Amino acid sequence: MSATPATLGILNIGQISINVQDLQRATAFYRDVLGLPLLFIVPNLAFFDCGGVRLMLSRAETPQFDHPSSILYFRVPDLNVAYQRLVELGAKIFAPPRLIAPMPTHDLWMAAFHDSEGNIHQLMSEVPRPK
User: Fold this and answer.
1) Buried b (16+ CB within 10 A) or exposed e, 37-59
2) Model pTM score
3) φ, ψ for residue 75 (rounded to 5)?
């Protein structure tokens, strides 16, 4: 796809930056609790792969950017299993699994948690409805 006057030619999200206060602690959380593959670490930055989207952990460069990150929604095949694993690994839970929206073909379920830096993220699962 090439850019035209009507479109920028955006294909997908290539990278998301997550603000952290303690890079070593956050790196351990995203690697050891969430189980994301660590791609590489360079001074003051850690990079993970999340299904082809790169997550970059970094401290805010200036005070105006020092705020919680956007909420990331991590898709999981079985919400209850993933939620229980978060609990076992000591993640701070913000909201347990709950039905968000019944859809025609599936139900959308989510569970919210804090990362090691206080950012809120969600696990999400689209559970097929019986036919």
Assistant:
1) eeeeeeeeebbbebeeeebebbe
2) 0.83
3) -75, 130
